[in-house]
Amino acid sequence: MMQNVHLAPETDEDDLYSGYNDYNPIYDIEELENDAAFQQAVRTSHGRRPPSKTSLASSIGRPMTGAIQDGVTRPMTAVRAAGFTKAALRGSAFDPLSQSRGPASPLEAKKKDSPEEKIKQLEKEVNELVEESCIANSCGDLKLALEKAKDAGRKERVLVRQREQVTTPENINLDLTYSVLFNLASQYSVNEMYAEALNTYQVIVKNKMFSNAGILKMNMGNIYLKQRNYSKAIKFYRMALDQVPSVNKQMRIKIMQNIGVTFIQAGQYSDAINSYEHIMSMAPNLKAGYNLTICYFAIGDREKMKKAFQKLITVPLEIDEDKYISPSDDPHTNLVTEAIKNDHLRQMERERKAMAEKYIMTSAKLIAPVIETSFAAGYDWCVEVVKASQYVELANDLEINKAVTYLRQKDYNQAVEILKVLEKKDSRVKSAAATNLSALYYMGKDFAQASSYADIAVNSDRYNPAALTNKGNTVFANGDYEKAAEFYKEALRNDSSCTEALYNIGLTYEKLNRLDEALDCFLKLHAILRNSAEVLYQIANIYELMENPSQAIEWLMQVVSVIPTDPQVLSKLGELYDREGDKSQAFQYYYESYRYFPCNIEVIEWLGAYYIDTQFWEKAIQYFERASLIQPTQVKWQLMVASCFRRSGNYQKALDTYKDTHRKFPENVEFRLCTDLGLKDAQEYARKLKRLEKMKEIREQRIKSGRDGSGGSRGKREGSASGDSGQNYSASSKGERLSARLRALPGTNEPYESSSNKEIDASYVDPLGPQIERPKTAAKKRIDEDDFADEELGDDLLPE
Question: Is the pTM of this model over 0.70?
Fold first, then answer.
């Protein structure tokens, strides 16, 4: 243990501490009392006498003050110590701080009314107003910011006048004046008061006392750019560029980018290309590369487009991903790595990377269809370039975009082929490709394949909200609403901003008749998508299901404010107002719906019934004629037209319409207008009616005999014929609404077929007026000319 201990040798070496006890005898104070020269100097003014030319030494060898020793003059030193005066020798007390004199007099109070104090207070108020203006601007209150800036400007002018009265003009605070004017100009600009902003900037720029004010010409150029005055904007940008020294490289690059943007908006792509080419040669960046690609696309130069895209792809991101990976098991290093993974710098890097990927993807989608003979070849070139760069992961995204382009061109086979190839790659691309395949098969109603690929997408990436939503859609299509809701909920747990899942779960709750939950989902979605017409319509629909028509109407009105030309929404509003009994409002919205889409049979039917209710026969005719054009195989529309002619008194036109309808539909019931006009054709039509009634009776007998196995009773057949005939209105039905009568007619979705086995009515009943009940079968009563005439005498007048 002692082998490493080395003792100092006992030799006569130099002592490290020698000399510390030696001192100059000048500092020896023990013999000062016996020093005659020192005592004489203390008692008399001998020590203050100017030294003689010959240096005198004290008794102990101390040189006198001012004596020259070794060529250096001894400096003058005081002989009176602090507190030692002549009075001390006479018995005065030791008082070096003069405390015996009493307390000091109080400080003189500042005069508040002095000009200097007023100037300082006013300057403080101006600074506070400028700060309040900036804070209001950052909070979004632009009007308050402008008011504060104006107040600061007014007070600053008062401050300048007061300073000129008190001090010289050179003492004016130029920095405060500059900040006040600059803030005022900025507030004018954000409030879109461009003329005032330009005037304020001109005041700053023309004042040569402000150093570096010329850079503000860039702000003036921005204002001219907003006003679309491109020539002046470029002029001021170039003036600002001349004011910036060459050492300030970043500012010069930004000004040149503004010049390039101005040239693009002005349509001068060649000049913009020159600016961006210079930027890419001096300091390449993403925005300049992206804009350069767009400019070459605008002029249609394929080769330059490729070169610009290659320049864009080589712009360095300057992001070090390795520093976010812990290289060792050191707990301290791991803590530091975890701390910086989500800090603000990391967020900025993510945003920069996302912006770069966005620019590259957009540029590729833009130039791919034009740089080669086909868009597929263009995409292949872009994919190869991306694979050779630092953005390798974007190659698969470009392949997916290629498949989407095939879908837009309705080339589904090529799209499916590409997606199936991508479905075999890594998990992220596999999930995206399977998700698109699932959506593709779902739109093609192939729910089995859609469900299969949705399962693949979910298994590849369980946190993919789009895959979970597609899986829920396939389950929803199979009617399992509870299970579909679970998939939608999981998608929302993974991504609360997945609006598709939130919308679909609202529809699911509506199917499950859980209207309150469905309404809650759509209201949440409305908070996210404020102007979505689909969401607003679903909210209105749920209120209608909840039997709250007033709220339904209110939400539908919001839909109309977003899409004022949607005929379905307008007709729905008309229907709700009709239920509420407001015929005028219902007519307004039904008419608007008809104006935008004049082919909706329900709207046409309602409008025709409305005009019949109001006894405007001529207007009702045009709607029924349009309905007969839309559904030419439906006999009831032509009968309605003829009936409207008859009710309006135009019997000849009505007769022509009936005849034309009879030619088109010879097996239908005939019409009795000939008797009203006293025409000889009445007997011919009566015979045809008799023949048709007999044919119908024979048909009914055959059907009845086949059904019962026997002939059955004649009375039952008559009753059956009566039940199968068209609905008859007695005299007591005069007060019923005409819309209800129209609904009693055959359905609009049942086309008329003369060769079908459908039973033909034995009599025609005018749906617009009451009819005297006629015989149901030809065997029950013989119809002759007198009987036919008697029955029609009461049908010319409308019910009151």
Answer: no
